[in-house]
């Protein structure tokens, strides 16, 4: 699937709500894990819906995205925010276009558009661009099992059998239709398991912590730090 094409004319990131109060609350949850510091990189910043809320907590922020239209929206949203630089880049070109090191390297709703190999390459480079004591925070990874339940209507409070059967059939039909039309089976992108992140973390000498998203019950956050920075233990999603 050509995700760059998918995003090339979109103008917002598709949060559960684009209401400003909702976005502010979502950003407040994320700031619990980002903290504050000198430099932050938001990879796949989109229209800047979260970055605008991160900016007051860091001296300098960089937002990177491959979509020109998303960056246009971000430029409008962030006009007048002096400490944010926006850069057009993808996961490969990013590290050439964005020099220096960061206290926080983060993404939100982005890893679903990256293959396992791309996530691995991204995390290795991100580790090498961290300041001492820095962290990488991957927000809103789609949890494979929780999302599968949701796809058949089991992630909701009420799940009558007829609805489960209907959604199971509809989801499979939609996925087959997308594949026949040369698109990814899931237009939301692909889930990635905690096991993938655990394996990558072990390979690159990172500690890993998992937390469920407060706003999306089928998504979780991944917090990674260089092992020597002394994060206590590991929890599972
Ligand atoms: C769901 S939106 C999230 C935007 C923003 N992080 C937020 O939460 O509001 C995903 C963003 O990731 C960007 N993106 C996806 N894959 C990318 C890649 N390989 N390189 C750069 N940007 C990418 C898309 O252009 C889009 O703006």
Describe the overall structure.
By secondary structure, the chain is α/β, with parallel strands linked by helices. The protein has two domains: 3-143 and 191-229, 3-Layer(aba) Sandwich (Rossmann fold), CATH 3.40.50.150; 147-180. 38% of the residues lie in helices and 23% in strands. It is built from nine helices and seven strands. The protein has helices spanning 3-7, 20-34, 51-54, 68-77, 94-97, 116-128, 144-151, 161-180, 194-203, and strands spanning 37-43, 58-65, 84-88, 102-108, 130-142, 206-212, 219-226. A seven-stranded mixed β-sheet has the order 3-2-1-4-5-7-6, sandwiched between helices. Helix 3 links the parallel strand 1 (37-43) and strand 2 (58-65). The longest helix has 20 residues, at 161-180. S-adenosylmethionine is lined by residues 3, 7, 13-14, 44-46, 49-50, 65-67, 70, 90-91, 108-110, 113-114.
